[in-house]
Design brief:
2 copies of one chain form a homodimer.
Chain A: E1 13-14, E2 20-22, E3 25-26, H1 27-34, E4 39-43, H2 44-57, E5 62-66, H3 73-80, E6 85-88, H4 91-97, E7 103-106, H5 113-121, E8 125-128, H6 131-144, E9 149-155, E10 176-177, H7 181-190, E11 194-200, H8 209-230, E12 236-238, H9 256-268, E13 278-283, H10 285-288, E14 292-304, E15 307-312, H11 320-323, E16 336-338, E17 348-353, E18 362-369, E19 377-381, E20 402-406
Parallel strand pairs in A: 4-20, 5-6, 5-13, 6-7, 7-8, 8-9, 9-10, 9-11, 11-12, 12-13, 15-17
Antiparallel strand pairs in A: 1-2, 2-3, 4-14, 14-15, 14-19, 16-19, 17-18
Helix pairs in contact in A: 2-9, 5-6, 7-8, 8-9
């Protein structure tokens, strides 16, 4: 039985030749230029359009890029010029970010002493995840003789309703429980550190504007209460992100403008102690997820017990989430298409699999496609965030995937 | 509430110093020698013992190693000397295997023309996955002017009952449906290729001896029927593997000797046309899974809402399966321990997490441990198969893990 798939972002269209075009160029020519498949293509104009849309919807709110979503260097370089800060989650990401943006902050529950020292030495803001980490950071700063920039990550008592991933509410490894935050901030200030404010992350991959509005309201209230308890205005309140994109059949895109309008209301009525605070939203997936497409080539077309399989040269080693094996309870189809027959009507039901010798390696399950042959290109959409870097690239020893960032003008 | 964990293989014991010893050496000294954490340690003596146990239980049956389980070069080199063949799943694995074993076979549903050509040129046996692949292989052999070694992978109409992963039965991307196999083998023989026999894989990670016995019986029956239909004795019947290891609480190890005894019976009564066939079993996980341990260091100890978290410098980017995010429906605890307090009694309930900034990164959920501190080493057991290579190593840009193979004598 045919299974549904998610929607293909509207920017991806068939060219006059009837094949998929990305940033004005055919998938086949992108593959030829890159030197083969599998290939990730990121459309920089789509990312820029997302950033512009955010700016329009959230005037006066800073935009940070969560580098973990996609740290491919040309993409990161392009984004860094258009955002107000880069949020990193490891020393590796930090090295990629340094020099690209004025504001870099480093969050993550397992920072080693070496990472803390590198961050402080480079003038990066540390989002402290615990009292123990705070002490280690202060010690490292003392060793270096540098005044550290320290923010405190708060584990809020709420989370974004229906969030794809819970990052707040209840016992969590992230941040410091809200009730212990004032004492920790006082400790930091007393120790002579530059206190940079709060990082309050309540969830991710939310598609409900209402849920995000509610979480942002609660975040501003919490930041105000914490600031009152401390008696100091936080220079910055990072409201987290959590803006989702629709991956699966039936999911609707987030009403970004509704969230922006309500946040403006919330901030207009914010407690006096936050009057001079800056506010930032940290986005990864929402900025880059839809802008990426993963292109693979069909190497075999076969039938087993009446079912047609299209076997590609790509797979879960490059696109683990699309295979349904990255923390998902039930496998659902990402949007996929035959790139080289993008303008053709669906003719048959096929299952698109990767080249790995494991039944886990599925890219499209019982999907309707034009009749594809060996040599055709398959496109897996929504491949811009948590794609190649979040996949087991070494699994089964296949060749690495290629990556390219393209823009309409190039 | 405390959650149970799987059993720790009996070979891992506390030394006189009360810490975990692997191959006669303390975890701390192994880490010091390797240069830090995270570190995978593979005990070669444990692998050798598994091989010896197989030899005792399956006299006269060939043993192949499925390289995809773990292709770490020193481990692969040690295993290659003790087995009768290496089964590879990509050109990358093939390059690692060539020169190490007489018999190398290459299975995998998405072999490219370049891979087929490389395999044929190197004298590697191809396990053909489809009629289309057979034609491409014959064409490649023609181009090279080489007589190819071709076996046919059969998609059987049965699968190992309760198998962790279904690889046979019904419509599958692997192999050729049994009823079409005789025609394909005749085509190969008629084209002048060296026909090497059948590869029949009915599942993996099975712990039930009865289920394996039943599948092996059915496999021999099927091989006999196919051989009769072709009228030629297959030189080799690869019976697949599927021998599981217990990962989780309540799972019992496979009764290997029972499977071996029954297979001997089955083979004693095999159809006359298989009298001169050789039989092989292909094992990966069962040979190496229990021999590996993943060592990470605690970098933070924190409490959130009354729950204790031990934050390590390792995580799901090295041990995706242990985090519960690799195709599992429900996260269950792999066996974990505080390596530096291995001889101590459990004192507290703790949740052991990795350093990644995502709630998916859990190594041990609500497990009982001795009271551990920053600097202690955590051991995650059963890390020898589908560990580092099956994990998203680049995820969040953390440093790569180290690997070492050790033996008691070293």
């Amino acid at each position: 039985m045919t299974k549904p798939m998610g929607g293909i972002p509207a920017e991806f269209r068939a060219g006059e030749d009837g094949t998929l075009h990305v940033a004005g160029r055919s998938a086949a020519s992108l593959v030829a230029d890159a030197g083969g498949t599998p290939l990730f293509v990121y459309d920089l104009a789509m990312v820029a359009a997302r950033i512009a849309r955010f700016r329009g919807a959230f005037p006066g709110v800073s935009l940070h890029y969560a580098v973990k979503a996609n740290s491919y260097a040309p993409l990161l370089a392009a984004i860094a010029k258009q955002v107000d800060g880069l949020d990193v989650a490891s020393a590796g990401e930090m090295r990629q970010a340094i020099g690209r943006a004025e504001h870099i902050s480093f969050a993550g529950p397992g920072k080693t002493d070496a990472e803390l020292e590198a961050a402080i030495g480079a003038g990066v803001t540390l989002n402290l995840e615990s009292e123990g980490e705070a002490e280690r950071a202060l010690t490292a700063a003392g060793r270096l003789g540098v005044r550290p920039k320290l923010a405190v990550r708060v584990n809020p008592d709420f989370e974004i309703r229906g969030s794809g991933m819970r990052m707040g509410g209840g016992a969590r490894p992230f941040g410091v429980d809200a009730e212990r935050v004032p004492a920790l901030v006082r400790r930091i200030i007393d120790a002579g550190a530059e206190w940079h404010g709060f990082h309050i992350f309540a969830g991710s991959q939310a598609l409900s504007a209402e849920a995000l509005i509610e979480a942002q309201r609660a975040t501003v209230v919490l930041a105000g209460e914490l600031a009152e308890a401390i008696g100091v205005t936080p220079p910055l309140v990072n409201l987290g992100g959590g803006f989702g994109i629709p991956y699966f059949h039936g999911e609707q895109p987030l009403d970004l403008e509704a969230v922006g309008a309500e946040l403006a209301e919330t901030l207009a009525q914010r407690p006096p102690i936050l009057r001079h605070s800056a506010f930032a939203i940290e986005l990864g997936r929402w900025l880059v997820g839809e802008a990426g497409v993963y292109l693979t080539r069909i190497v075999d077309r076969k039938v087993s017990h009446g079912k047609t399989f299209l076997v590609t040269d790509g797979g879960m080693h490059h696109q683990l989430a699309a295979s349904g094996n990255f923390g998902q309870l039930v496998r659902r189809n990402y949007p996929v298409a035959i790139a080289t027959r993008f303008g053709s009507e669906p003719e048959e039901e096929a299952t698109i699999v990767g080249c790995l010798c494991t039944p886990l390696d599925r890219l499209g399950d019982d999907v309707m496609t034009p009749k594809a042959q060996v040599g055709d290109l398959v496109a897996v959409f929504l491949a811009g965030a948590y794609g190649l870097s979040a996949s087991p690239q070494a699994f089964l020893g296949h060749a690495p995937a290629l990556e390219r960032a393209v823009s309409g003008g190039s």
